[in-house]
Specification:
Blueprint: E1 3-9, H1 13-24, E2 33-39, E3 57-62, H2 68-78, E4 83-86, E5 92-93, H3 97-106, E6 113-117, E7 122-123, H4 132-140, H5 144-149, E8 158-161, H6 162-167, H7 179-188, E9 192-195, E10 201-204, H8 209-228, H9 232-256, H10 259-284
Parallel strand pairs: 1-2, 1-4, 2-3, 6-9, 7-10
Antiparallel strand pairs: 4-8, 5-10, 6-8
Helix pairs in contact: 4-8, 4-10, 8-10, 9-10
């Protein structure tokens, strides 16, 4: 067993099946990898269709503690592979995702590699009719190559040696967001991070503006927990800067792209600003968006 693919799951059944179908099509001998799906929904046990027959080792675990990072840590604890891969239940890896990653690790004879990551291109429900949220994400999608240059990776497309993950005690389970930034930076202070354009996982664009707002509220909560919990004034300044950057981004797009698209971006940005300020006051009261 060389690779363990860990997938946290929470009420996204149809897309989980699509992900598992993608993993069935991997151009890697099935004996070399296992897939560990960790159900993070304490209310509903996860069962797969009777006619679903994986050609790889599939393990389903239950993690009642809330949060995807607790689910990922549960997967790490049960992983048999020397290398652990992370992706999400709504993602679609390319057929060569695992084989291309394994080839890179096989060349790492001195085990200097801490994290391997790659592109996470977005896909849309109807590319010819993008919603406001999809237009927004078209211009703000995952810039994983830039993340890697700064020492960060996202769990949609992440590979590490299992013993490296254990060395750093896995993810911080107290975080609802930013846990990937937190752990990846810890790892890359001591090990190398590599970006490979051939290690590809596709991610769906958010379809509704409310989904985009929810993401930013959740990320803001993670940032607060990691950086600003002891200083409300610094947190306030951070949110002011965040608000200014949203406004500036909208203004730039009005000058560079079509009014049809820039107006949609403006609407989404206004919703983001409103939502993050609501989250700000919840956080000051000791509350937060949990998922």
């Amino acid at each position: 067993m060389r690779l363990s693919v860990i997938v946290p799951y929470y009420r996204d059944y149809n897309r989980l099946i699509q992900l598992l179908d993608c993993l069935k099509q991997q151009q890697l001998v099935s004996d070399l990898f296992e897939v560990i799906v960790v159900n993070n929904d304490a209310e509903t046990p996860l069962g797969l269709p009777k006619d679903f027959s994986p050609n790889f080792s599939l393990i389903i675990l239950e993690e009642p503690r809330s949060g995807s990072y607790a689910a990922r840590n549960k997967g790490i604890a049960h992983a048999r592979g020397d290398i652990v891969a992370f992706t999400d239940s709504d993602c679609l890896p390319d057929k060569t995702w695992l084989s291309n990653a394994l080839e890179i690790f096989d060349k790492d004879s001195q085990k200097k590699l801490g994290i391997l990551t790659g592109p996470v291109p977005l896909f849309y429900k109807d590319p010819k009719k993008l919603t406001a949220a999809e237009v927004y994400e078209k211009y703000t999608g995952f810039t994983t190559e830039a993340y890697a240059k700064d020492g960060y990776a996202i769990t949609a497309n992440w590979f590490s040696y299992s013993d490296v993950l254990v060395e750093f005690n896995g993810f911080n389970e107290n975080l609802k967001s930013n846990g990937d930034s937190d752990l990846s930076k810890k790892i890359t202070r001591h090990y190398e991070i590599q970006y490979s354009p051939n290690v590809i996982v596709r991610h769906p664009s958010r379809y509704l503006a409310s989904e985009v707002v929810y993401k930013y509220r959740r990320v803001l909560g993670g940032t607060y927990q990691r950086k600003f919990k002891e200083s409300r004034l610094k947190f306030f300044r951070y949110l002011l800067d965040f608000t200014w950057r949203r406004i500036r981004f909208s203004a730039k797009k009005m000058a560079t792209i079509s009014p049809k698209e820039s107006s949609k971006i403006l609407v989404v940005n206004l919703a983001i600003v409103w939502g993050t300020w609501k989250e700000f006051f919840l956080l000051l009261k000791g509350l937060e968006t949990k998922r």
